[in-house]
Amino acid sequence: MIRIFLAATAVVTVAAMAGCGAREITPDEQLPNQFAGAPEWVLQGCSAYWGDDGGARVCGVGDAKIGPSMSIARTKATSRARTEISRTLETKVKNMVRDFQEQVADGEPGMTAEQFSSTTVSLSKATLNGTSVQQTWVSPASQLYILVALDVEAFENSVREMDEMSQKLRTFIESRAKKSFAELDEEMEEY
């Protein structure tokens, strides 16, 4: 009876030791597997997808874990990509409005800070209307990646359609839009 007990204990001990001996995979080792076969835009952004397009578009990459509903993951990833575009453009729009403020400070005393604030909000709303999903990719780890782009021409058309914006401000923003987006692309490539 003692022999059976010792034999059973030996088997359990060997099994436990074998289970503990398995090497755990580190996060650094998992990362390459997660991005195996990933398109360049997943890791490098917009310029990897279109190359140098002269600032014709601004884009964002969003991701979401795929759960029971692919639709929810797609909506979440698209929203995150649009948020990235919005953050990028918010900075550019503020800079454009600030430049315009400096330019018209001498000539138009009727242009107030409140009007500039309203214009910035309107531009942000117009921006999201000009975005579209360009490409999607699902990682081996079931993470959905979506590339969303804003076409600069569509952005300029949205600016033209804004009623509450003065003609002078509208013309200024349209003239600066392409230049600003080209500068943004250059900054993103350096990043």
How would you describe this protein?
- This protein is of the alpha+beta class.
- It has one domain (39-190): Thiol Ester Dehydrase, Chain A.
- Helices cover 64% and strands 14% of the residues.
- It is built from eight helices and three strands.
- The chain has a three-stranded antiparallel beta sheet with strand order 1-3-2.
- The chain is elongated, with a radius of gyration of 27 Å.
- The model has no long low-confidence stretch (mean pLDDT 72).
Number of helices: 8
Radius of gyration: 27 Å
End-to-end span in angstroms? 72 Å
How large is the share of residues in beta strands? 5-15%
Number of β-strand runs: 3
CATH topology: Thiol Ester Dehydrase, Chain A
Oligomer: single chain
Number of domains: 1
Please outline the major beta sheet: 3 strands, antiparallel
Shape, per Cα inertia axes: elongated
Report the top-level CATH class: Alpha Beta
Low-confidence stretches: none
Structural class assignment = alpha+beta
Strand order of the largest sheet: 1-3-2
Whole-number mean pLDDT = 72
